[in-house]
Amino acid sequence: MEERSSYLARVSPNALPYDAILCHELSHSHISNEALNQFLELYIYNNLRGSSADPASWAFTRNWTPGLPSNQGIAAIMDVYQLVGHDAMRAAYRAIRPLRPAYGAPLTPAVLDAFVNQVPPDLREAVRAKLATIIA
């Protein structure tokens, strides 16, 4: 892990906040899939900064624009979170963690099923479609 002063000296003001990088790297100890991990990064970083669980209150979202049909990866995960809410998202992450979604790979059918089964039935099709965009 690069230390803060050298990181800040070499990056632009629009770069990923250093504290978000720390949250990201720590989150890899919980889940390795990059997009799923980036959601944890955003959630933890914003909550540590005093935001609520509501993503509308988050100052840092990796440039997420809610609900775009073209959202993929972390933006799709953010759409899922906005759609299902905190409790369903927490249950979904708890369900998929033992399946160890791989870094750099699409979500397996088992991971998709475990995740989707934690959300309300009327949202499952939309959530499955968003999760299908998670390839890394």
Name the shape in a single word: globular
Q: What is the number of independent domains?
A: 1
Return the average pLDDT rounded to an integer: 91
Count of alpha/pi helices: 6
Helix and strand pattern? HHHHHH
Q: Total number of β-strand segments?
A: 0
Helix content: 40-55%
Structural class: mainly alpha
- Gyration radius, in Å: 15 Å
Query: How would you characterize the largest beta sheet?
Result: none
Please state roughly what percent of the residues sit in beta strands, choosing from under 5%, 5-15%, 15-25%, 25-35%, 35-45% or over 45%: under 5%
List keywords for this structure.
136 residues; mainly alpha; 6 helices; 53% helix; 0% strand
Notes on the protein architecture:
The protein has 136 residues and is mostly helical. It has one domain. It is built from 6 helices and no strands. It is globular and about 45 Å long.
Concise structural overview:
This protein is an all-alpha fold and about 140 residues long. Helices cover about 55% and strands about 0% of the residues.
Describe the protein's topology.
Elements lengths: L3 H7 L7 H10 L6 H15 L24 H24 L12 H8 L7 H8 L5
Helix pairs in contact: 2-3, 3-4, 4-5, 4-6
